[in-house]
Design brief:
Distance between the termini: 77 Å
Strand content: 5-15%
Largest sheet: 2 strands, antiparallel
Order of helices and strands: HHHHHHHEEEEHHHHHHEEHEE
Strand order of the largest sheet: 1-2
Helix content: 40-55%
Radius of gyration: 26 Å
């Protein structure tokens, strides 16, 4: 039976996929791969970030948006869980468990499919033929992420919908909310297209994982590519700076010392700092199914209701043949209990000019609040 190395070398060399891969050492890798390769659709028990790396990310993001004034911050919102879910998507991509997505994973894929002697019977039908080659190529050029589902630990890449279980269906018989809640479809990952999978391969593993894109400058210079390597190197730098200045890892420092180290990170590795800031914002404001915005704390901080369907803000009432506004979230007036304050005198004058004088809006009796006619 054809050896996996020879089969894949013959079929994939024209696509340059095996350039730089450890195919020549496949015979040495095989014993380890047999014992470490996992079933392709079963995620590993832990995420990409190790426990120590996770602690650093949690501590850094907690300083970027802190809770120093008593207001919940990134720590309370679970931003580190969001980052872990993002970096750990497509667990099957690294089939051999070596922390990289390379040609060597083809052997791991064969092992996970049931091969025991290093052959390339990927689909396990007893023969090596075109479907095996196609399956292996798809696993890489689809890209290697095709070896696993687009989610980690229930955290999807793209959440489904249209409804979560946060709001009930309306009851048209009474014009009020019912007690019937839909399932949380946000927990069902949206299947990705081949192009989307290729894009996520570059985002997580870098352009080297997709040889067709290695010469595309956007695949190597964009802010959100090669995320796994950037986080691994960035966290290591943070601990190096922390050890040099305070003889301790970043997560073990007092907050003032953490701020001092973070200031150096901002100067010495600004791209990593900016990446952390972006992911902190995403983790605070995302839908909870992505891992952040724990208990919807982030939405509460910015006074955002979140997804409102299927209930909506007006409910049809069959008894009157018309829609009723929800008393807790009316459309025509301000929300009950809304303080509707905080604008400066200059801002109030500006709003009066723009909204009332120019746009013809009606000013609410409560200060600083406006509504359109």
């Amino acid at each position: 039976m054809t050896d996996v190395k020879d089969l894949f070398l013959a079929h994939l060399s024209r696509r340059r996929f095996l350039q730089g891969a450890a195919v020549a050492s496949s015979a040495l890798l095989w014993p380890r791969l047999r014992s470490t390769a996992r079933a392709l659709d079963v995620p590993p028990p832990s995420g990409f970030l190790t426990a120590d790396e996770y602690a650093v990310v949690e501590a850094i993001t907690a300083r970027i948006v802190s809770n120093d004034d008593g207001t919940p911050g990134a720590l309370e919102c679970g931003v580190a869980d969001y980052v872990q879910g993002l970096l750990s998507a497509f667990p099957g991509a690294d089939a051999n468990g070596d922390g990289r997505a390379t040609a060597a994973d083809l052997i791991g894929i064969a092992a996970a499919a049931g091969a025991t002697t290093g052959d390339a019977d990927v689909n396990g039908d007893g023969i090596v033929d075109e479907p095996d080659r196609a399956a292996a190529v798809t696993s890489i050029f689809g890209g290697p992420v095709a070896a696993g589902p687009p989610a980690f630990d229930g955290k999807p890449i793209f959440a489904g919908g249209p409804f979560s279980d946060r709001n009930p269906f309306p009851d048209p018989a009474t014009g009020t909310a019912s007690n019937n809640f839909p399932p949380n479809y946000f927990r069902q990952p949206i299947p990705l297209t081949r192009v989307q999978r290729l894009a996520w391969t570059v985002r997580l593993f870098g352009a080297d994982a997709v040889p067709e894109l290695k010469d595309n400058p956007l695949a190597s210079s964009s802010a959100d590519v090669n995320l796994r390597a950037r986080y691994r190197a960035g966290v290591a730098l943070v601990n190096t700076l922390s050890q040099a200045q305070f003889s301790a890892n970043y997560a073990d420092l007092a907050t003032a010392d953490q701020d001092a180290v973070l200031a150096k990170v901002k100067t010495q590795q600004r791209s990593f700092y900016d990446l952390l800031v972006s992911h902190t914002i995403e983790g605070i404001l995302c839908v909870p199914e992505y891992g952040g915005n724990r208990d919807r704390i982030g939405w509460t901080l910015v006074h955002f209701d979140g997804d409102s369907q299927p209930l909506g803000y007006t409910i049809y009432d069959a008894t009157i043949g018309d829609y009723r506004e929800r008393p807790d979230k009316p459309n025509s007036t301000i929300d009950p209990g809304d303080p509707c304050s905080g604008f400066s005198d200059d801002m109030e004058q500006f709003l009066d000019t723009v909204l009332v004088t120019l746009a013809g809006a009606t000013k609410f009796p409560s200060p600083f609040c406006y509504t359109g006619e």
